[in-house]
Specification:
35% strand, elongated, binds zinc ion
Length: 280
Amino acid sequence: MDIGGSTLVSYPEGEVRGRSAVVGTVPVGDRHGTIVAETPFHPLDHTWPDQPADTGTIGGLAVVDCVTGAVEEGGETVRLGEDIPVRRGTPGWSWLVVHVTDAPVPDREVELVVDAAVRHALSAGHTACHLAALALNAALAGRWRKEVPCDALGHPDFDQTAIASSRILPGGSRDVYRLGKSLRRKGFTAEGLAEELPEIAQRAGDRLKEWVAADAPVWIDSPGPELTARRTWHCGLPGGEVAIPCGGTHLSRTSELGALTVTLELSGDGSELTMHTAAG
Ligand SMILES: [Zn+2]
């Protein structure tokens, strides 16, 4: 199979439509996977599956799932999702967007149409997720006794140091942080966290309100059009421009988020902190 290298993607610029040549097909269970040269579809990432796959149509057929595929240079077998044995972007592999349909795609050249309403809701959720992480870092800054890497606003990066999983939802996100021994060893004070939680959520929420009111611009920097190009999310916040490595989709201004709220929840044994973020 000659698929001609990694899939080129147009979703980082916010694209939801495209037309492209079919360059390969691969069975996905008893469904059909179609690979095109260039697509607006965002697939689930196999290494850090935070943002769900786009839905929509390819050649008029419903895209029921969209997954990441990889094929080793000179190889024949397309590996899918969790079966990919290497990390995202590993050199020597072509990285593919695989559009999954119930029936085979009959055409050699296809129209690709992403469900724009679902995409918009996921973009809002993803932008909200990054802003909430920065607001949480600021709200927890006083709890560090040792130096850890800081985020772009100069606060100890609790988010990147403690994150266990991040899920982007339509219009929001759910981030789970591990508060185990290793985080304490790095200098994080977890004592009294349960009691202070409402205050921390309030501080984070107040900051988010300011950032939404500031109508700050949001954009993606991309070194290339390939699926696994190392893209970066940027936001021109009043306190300075921030950047976070990110493979997802986003809104273009913070004001589009409307009322942005966070709630914090500590697990019964205190080992996990969950942040629920919701835009509205
Ligand atoms: Zn991201």
